[in-house]
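During the reporting period the student researcher (J.K.) took over the structure-prediction task from the postdoctoral fellow and processed the backlog of single-chain submissions. One of the processed entries is reproduced below for the supervisory committee.
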Amino acid sequence: MALLMANNLETVIHTENLTRRFGDFVAVDSLNLEVPAGQVLGYLGPNGSGKTTTIRMLLGLLHPSAGRATVLGYDVATQSEQVRAHTGYMSQKFALYGELTARENLIFYGGVYGVTAAARIDEMLDSLGLHDVRNQRVASLSTGWRQRLALATAIIHRPGLLFLDEPTSGVDPVARRAFWELIYELSAQGITIMVSTHYMDEAEYCTQVGIMRDGRLLALDEPARLKAALPGQVWEIYADPLLDALEIVEQIPLVTRAGLASDHLRAIVAEGGNADLLHTALAAQGVRILAITPGAPSMEDVFMALSG
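J.K. obtained the following structure tokens:
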């Protein structure tokens, strides 16, 4: 029923100047967010930018200091029980019971949502690849397995909207990639997903990205559109010695950002600058230039440009 509800709504999350203060500290500042059904929204920002506070308000766990929000058509302040009944939530802490087996954890969380059918438990174990570890105690499972199990407990009741709060924090790159494949599978089933992360590269997996900084939403759009709007041109600079080249490039007035990128430099040059500008500055200081080639913008470039 929850899944059907989500698909019948054009907008799954709607906020109007949503604000949360803790004393004099503003954790979320006048957030205006519109999330259509079927999206995988990446909520991107460093730790402390307001991502978790936003999710807690949208779940009805934390009352807004100002503004309002609806989730799946329910008001988060006055209909919080309905919100939580039709949504799923997974935190980075993996709220599982270590002394119980994987299957027993699913049975317990299913019972919380009124899901008692053994067939549904088995379906979740199979669909998330947990069948072989179903009878193992959670305390003995690797982080990757516990991550999958935590996801299973969050969707056992077939929610229309799933909140994932830093779900890949602390897991290895292989497990991170596998987890995002699971997210795509859930999205294909019609579940709208909001996932917060401080990993810039994970934004590339999302259909929409919201960039947070100091409690404010700086931008909300498709990753490709955000990168296309990046002011300036990215240049990949191969030179020797590399650190000397970095120091020189950082001093060029039209270079808005420069840094090391593996075996070369990566620089963003504002409008009016070009490869000749870089070449001239480096050659004047005796740096050996191997190559200067155009580069593609990344989400980290976008974030740094927006956040100043």
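The committee noted the following: DSSP finds eleven helices and 15 strands in the chain.
J.K. will present the remaining backlog at the next meeting.
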